[in-house]
Design a protein that fits this description.
about 700 residues; 9-stranded antiparallel sheet
Length: about 700
């Protein structure tokens, strides 16, 4: 579409949006600087009012402000105005990212919009091409004041961009990621409202979804200086449409967010983030760990609930407006009256889509019996998957009593708790996990067929947290693993490696096998020693105080360093347990991004060793003769990893050079024991010392 043909759409849209004047300001600095971190509509600067809710979605979601078109054929501009004064001279800056196909899509910042929204200045950036434009909109036309394509300033692709327009006197300037790309002189308009927005041309029929973050508006001409962003927004998620309903099994609309590790903070004390447990192995532990997320994270959705009258057979919903695969949700409700008689339910409809599909997990009662259940809503009706009894203290059946129902959904397992605060039920969901909206729900089925009376119900509060990062705060563990003297947290792994191929037999394709005596590989020894010496010349990236690992028969436990490295030197000394009647093993995992595809180097007390990716077949394996099997004796593992190659050593002897091209991730490093199920004795303690990580010199 030619730019001038868009003017009618722009002007019509501007005229249709009610000016945003209510709502609290964001953070107000000295004089006239306003900021919006997009964390909550309660403290936001932008209006969530859509010009047409059936076609466009506006709102604060997942710590972003999103603007979304729901029609594939629509093209034009969508603007969001701010609750700040109209300034003559102003800077408007915001971070943005656009989801999906970027063809013909753009975002913009603007200033000096007239009261009737008929005129303004606008700086526009196309992340698909790097093109930027400065526009002046007049009541009947639009003028392109400047255009340039600069891929050195614009992050081309799905990466985030920070864009800024500065209107100072007659000078209008467009800035991308801190770099000035366009500046013009134009004195047509001298004051007006700031705004942000997004749009697309007719070059694509794809829908539009843009996420914004870190909005800063600074009055200029009185010493104001535009602020730099403190963080960049995440790639916006493909959120659900307005008022989505329920869902069965559909393909996910987005890939899960890659989990991360690191530290977060409560007050001044850093808290180590460690991986959530595998819910298929220990759902109760996973549920407890998910609760820990709520202690430090801001909810993705929060509500004071709602009250209403339920009609027989017609459940009612609140809509969170999120798109989550893994989450933790809490709902508090008041026990309804016993008349009219029937069964009432409270719970969550999750992974909801616009076609009427969702999983429904709930607690229910009829005045006497307490049940839990999970089912599926679809356009064809409702199917119950599984249900069971709840303990007596799970729900207080006294009318007017307050109750809680909590669910966590993680890695395809749904877990439920009630007033007991214990795990009451867990269900492995069929198929692959996928994302969708989450809808707090209440329902009523009357005992009398044809009952026309309604049942008054009340939800007192609802909150939903995002678990997609796959980590939780180890509040009771070590606060900071980067100090060089801390004990790393011990956490559950999610898999057990396969049993290794017997040394000397024919391995799988790409597998190397070796037998190393006490002398090891003499040619690699000097190279390894030189690299070790160079690494030890610098302070460690991480070192731990002596501690212990406790073996588990259901999944090996790890102590993580909490680092993010690809190239490194790692060392750890394990002390044999007192009980050596059953074979044991020791190992190091590295380049770990919590996807179960990290490298695992394991040496067993019978001398067998293996290196593999996750739980797959080893890529290298063999035997060593220098493992000291004496109870209480020490054995030291060392690894040097650099790019696609590495070297592994036991007790100072280099075993072999290994191919590391299968995983080049920058990730964490952990130590473990009992990595093979047959080597683990429940509760057997394996002490360790001198666990340290060093950077390799360039």
């Amino acid at each position: 579409m030619h730019r001038l043909l868009r003017v009618g759409l722009i002007v019509a849209l501007l005229a249709s949006i009610v000016a945003w004047s209510g709502g609290p300001m964001g953070v107000t600095a000295q004089g006239q600087t306003f900021s919006d971190s997009m964390d909550s509509s309660a403290t936001g600067l932008l209006s969530s009012q859509s010009p047409d809710p059936a076609r466009f979605v506006y709102g604060y979601q997942n710590s972003q402000f999103i603007i979304q078109s729901l029609e594939t054929g629509w093209n034009g501009d969508l603007l969001a105005f701010t609750s700040v004064p109209a300034f003559p001279d102003v800077s408007v800056a915001v971070d943005f990212s656009i989801a999906g196909d970027l063809t013909g899509k753009y975002a913009f910042v603007g200033c000096r919009a007239a009261d009737d929204n008929s005129s303004a200045y606008m700086f526009e950036v196309h992340p698909g091409t790097g093109q930027t434009n400065l526009w002046r909109f007049d009541p009947e036309s639009a003028a392109n004041l400047g255009s340039v394509t600069d891929t050195s300033a614009v992050n081309v692709g799905s990466a985030n961009n920070r864009i800024e327009i500065r209107c100072e006197g007659s000078t209008i300037t467009g800035i991308a990621n801190g770099q000035q790309v366009l500046t013009v002189q134009d004195s047509t308009y001298t004051a007006g409202d700031p705004f942000i927005g997004t749009g697309k041309t007719d070059a694509t029929t794809d829908t539009l979804l843009t996420g914004f973050d870190n909005l800063t508006i600074t009055e200029l001409g009185v010493g104001g200086v535009a602020q730099q962003p403190t963080q960049v927004p995440a790639q916006p998620t493909q959120d659900t449409q307005v008022q989505p309903t329920q869902e069965t099994q559909v393909q996910p609309t987005q890939a899960p967010v890659e989990p991360t590790q690191g530290t977060t903070a409560t007050g001044d004390e850093p808290v180590q983030m460690v991986p959530l447990s595998d819910p298929t192995i220990d759902p109760a532990l996973t549920f407890d760990e998910a609760f820990m997320v709520t202690l430090i994270d801001t909810p993705a959705y929060e509500s004071n609930g709602a009250s209403g009258d339920l009609v027989n057979g017609r459940p009612q919903y609140l809509t969170a407006g999120v798109n989550l695969t893994d989450f933790y949700g809490e709902l508090s409700f008041i026990t309804p009256a016993s008349d009219p008689a029937g069964i009432w339910t409270f719970g969550f409809c999750f992974w909801a889509d616009a076609n009427g599909n969702c999983y429904d997990m709930f607690v229910s009662a009829n005045g006497t019996n307490r049940l839990w259940g999970i089912g599926v809503f679809s356009p064809d009706g409702y199917s119950l998957i599984q249900s069971g009894d709840l303990p007596e203290n799970a729900i207080d059946l006294t009318p007017g009593a307050e109750n809680d129902v909590t669910i966590a959904v993680y890695n395809g397992v749904a877990m439920l708790s009630s007033n007991t605060y214990e795990l009451d039920a867990s269900v492995v969901l069929p198929g692959q996990p996928f994302g969708g909206d989450i809808k707090p729900a209440a329902g009523f089925i009357a005992s009398i067929e044809g009952e026309t009376r309604t049942l008054p119900v009340t939800m007192t509060s609802v909150a939903i947290w995002d678990l997609s990062a796959g980590v939780y705060p180890d509040i009771f563990g070590v606060s900071d693993t980067q100090t060089g003297t801390d004990t790393p947290p011990v956490t559950e792994s999610t898999q057990i490696p396969v049993e290794p191929t017997v040394a000397g037999s024919t391995g799988t394709t790409g597998t190397t096998e070796t037998t190393a005596g006490a002398g090891g590989n003499a040619m690699l020894g000097p190279i390894f020693n030189n690299s070790r010496t160079a690494a030890l010349a610098n302070a460690p990236l991480f070192s731990a105080s002596p501690s212990s690992l406790v073996q588990s028969a259901t999944g090996f436990r790890v102590a993580t360093a909490g680092v993010a490295v690809s190239d490194f030197y790692a060392t750890v000394t394990f002390v044999n347990p007192v009980d050596m009647n059953t074979r044991t093993d020791i190992g190091i995992g590295f380049r770990d991004i919590l996807d179960n595809l990290e490298y695992r180097f394991v040496v067993r007390s019978d001398g067998a060793w293996a290196l593999g990716i996750g739980a797959s077949d080893p890529i290298a394996q063999g035997t060593v003769t220098n493992f000291d099997t004496t109870p209480g004796a020490s054995n030291t593992l060392e690894i040097i990893a650099r790019g696609t190659s590495g070297m592994i050593a036991l007790n100072g002897v280099v075993i072999q050079e290994v191919d590391l091209s299968g995983n080049l991730n920058t990730g964490d490093i952990y130590i473990a024991s009992g990595m093979y199920g047959s080597d683990a004795v429940e509760g057997r303690e394996v002490p360790f010392t001198e666990f340290a990580i060093y950077a390799l010199p360039a």
